[in-house]
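Researcher: Next sequence.
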Amino acid sequence: MTRNKVFLTLVLSVTAGLITSAFGFWSVTEKEASSSSSARNNPSQPTGPSSTLNPTDLPQFKPDIVLEDPKAVPPTSPASPVPRPNPAPITPPPPATQLPPTLATSSYPQPREAKADVHPTNYGERFAANVHGQAVQNNWLIVLHETVGSAMSAINTFQTPHPRDEDQVSYHALIFLDGTIVYLVPPEKRAYGAGNSVFVGANGPEAVQTNANLPASVNNFAYHISLETPADGNHNGPVHSGYTEAQYQSLAWLIARTGVPIQRVTTHAKVDRSGERADPRSFDFSKFSAMLQPVTNLNASNTPPQN
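Model: Next structure:
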């Protein structure tokens, strides 16, 4: 082979190699681009770590949930239209002295506790007076709810800004199916858990109007706790399979820590006046009362004698 032929063969080999490399690089790049485009157009195809959070993804949290007296905060100034009438003002006895939380936590194992922030538009201050300037001094009330969807879906809703009053919603605490308690709105703040609502108990009808444009509600003196709904309850039907044993135990553990008596534990369905709320559906109140009773007896046996 002559020197010229050798040189020509070498040139052709190098050129072919470059073309092959370029084609291979183009093929890989095109494949990746096609894969990325397909993932963007098909949200069900994961493109990385899952965005779905579990209770274990939330930070561990050790809260002090002993309820305190509402802070004296001036109500929002009345605005037109004319405020709706508020239930007759009542003067119930002041809340009983709260027992130390340690006296109420030995009947059931301490559940995992976590915290999730809530957007400030979804909660507010507790008021010392209603829109008419009348002082309010209601005993604490616990209102039970359910999520009607996943717990994380509810948390996502609470973390979304809602400038309009009618869209604002939140709870103080949420209990996952596995019994994890996630604290949301601090207890000294007013969660927007019940709209048009009234609690009827030993003191008669109780509700406080804090916004002249909205009906009175129990939110000013309520501590709202929600249970995550089981998967077969994500509908508007009247019943589902019910809540887990871990949820009942965590609920009893949490309510015992607040010191609020069972007589002032109610449901959203009971206090609702709109006729639209039925939660928590399939809640076994008799079972829950029986679970809370041993803790109540424990508290009573540890209460120091009164002089």
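Model: Residues 1-44 form one domain. Helices lie at 3-41, 151-158, 245-258, 268-271, 285-302.
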